[in-house]
Amino acid sequence: CVQLFLLIQVILNCVALQLSLPSDPSYYAGVVELPVQVGTPKERVSAAQDVYISIIESNDTNDLDILVFPEYVLNNREVPTFVPHPQLNITPCFEPDYELFLVEISCAVRARRLYVVLNLIEKELCGPSYGSSTWNPCPANGVRFFNTNVVLDRDGRVVSRYRKTHLWRNEYKSHAVLQQPELATFDTDFGVTFGHFICFDMLFYEPAMRLLLERNITDIIYPTYWFSELPFLGAVQLQEGWAFANDINLLAADGSDPAGKTSGSGIYAGRHGRLAAGIFETPTQRLFKARVPKRGANYELPPKVLPAFSPQLVTPRLTALDTFRDYNVDIFETQLLAADFVNATQRVCHADFCCDFEVLRRLIGSSADLAAYRYRLGAYRGNETTLIRVDRSEQAVCAVFACTSDSLLSCGRLLPATASVANQHYFERIRIAGVFPAAKRRLIMPSTLDGLMLPLDVAQYKWSESPPQQQLQNTLVSLELTTPKNDLLTFGIWANYFTELPSSHNLDHLQPPPVIAPVPVPAAPGGSSNNAAGCSICAAVSCFLFLL
């Protein structure tokens, strides 16, 4: 009996040390949505440290292999920390040469025995002969800052570090950017190699796409503090669309400040859609967990069971999440549909890029006391667009999107919370198709959104590509709504062609060399210019030589 007891203890200890094995077809992941704490900068960091440790040490993380925290929430420039290079194999818990919050979290991770991904403000010393190679010049005080992911393994050791490549607006004025973007990856003891990047990086070719295409990474970690934009770039909407288009696993942890446009976290399994996700109207602390299938393993996800559809005049809406408006739609070629339309079959072309639409609705009911969205069909292909007005972009879009009136300027906006909104019709069927031009750098994804600011479940639509978008050929893409839907804000195909046109962000060190205009020559006395006088002299000399 004693021997059996000891054997059971050994087995339990092994399970506690490593929940998933390389031979297992799945692993267990968690992502945390979390608001910034209140108080002075130092008080916010101290409070965040306590929250992070309480989550790491809670019973809710007992079964997790890996846990991801959001961008921007942990610390700030008032309390930055040095971060050791992963090759040094440093464990801050017993090498406490770093800011206290990193030391304390390292110890909590070692005690809990799971992988943890943090995002923090890193500081680095720089000078004429030392420091990283960045686009930004070294500040006069010799200290620069990075927006950095830090990965701790089960021992609390720093095993990976990534410094954000594509900063957000005013971040460029306070943070440095490496001249050579990092491709950050790390291996785990449960047989999965992860890549990771931060927030706005998702909309660019490097490092995000390079990790997938050059390193064959199939599982991505994504701390973010995303600012949602309608109609195409809501937080969960983009996360699920990006994971679906690339058919990879994505662990996305967002901050939580809905009044400031930030909320939306989730765990996604490529073409299988979201395993767990949420978006909120008030600042929320929430742990999302899911068992994630390893790519190529024989792991059967439970079948999705959609609730039975019933036409509903009024459905829940999420309105307290503030959003940006996508001003790109103002240059789309669009067609406004009639308020009472039930059947629309139409081709809309922007130059030589065309989208074919079939939209079928059924009447639910109407009331003069209730407002309703109007809808437009839209097509666009070109590079006169931006990514949330931060960087230039090249896009191709075929979409049906909601507007609050018949004005194009009202598209990409929500009817206010004070309005009583009705679904006077429900969508029975939508089919959108377009030929997306071949390009070496492109990503074509479904972009869908309902009144709860969540994308439609992948079981609600059919997606096809012919040939697959990875091939360097024109690709016929179609998106078809296969189950009825009451409320709809966006249903479309959104393609990012990853423009290589530069954006200097009004930064001095990124400006191109000035073009020096030629200095005009002052006119000579008598109204003739020096050039004219010179020509007259040349002509006189020529005549003299001719006479000779």
Automatic annotation (TrEMBL):
Residues 1-16 form the signal peptide. InterPro entries: Biotinidase/VNN, C-N_Hydrolase, C-N_Hydrolase_sf, Vanin_C. Keywords: Hydrolase, Signal. The keyword Signal applies. Residues 27-294 form the CN hydrolase domain. Gene3D superfamilies: Carbon-nitrogen hydrolase. GO terms for molecular function: hydrolase activity. The keyword Hydrolase applies. It holds the Pfam family CN_hydrolase. Belongs to the carbon-nitrogen hydrolase superfamily. BTD/VNN family. PANTHER family: BIOTINIDASE, BIOTINIDASE-RELATED. This is CN hydrolase domain-containing protein. It comes from Drosophila rubida. The lineage of its organism: Eukaryota, Metazoa, Ecdysozoa, Arthropoda, Hexapoda.
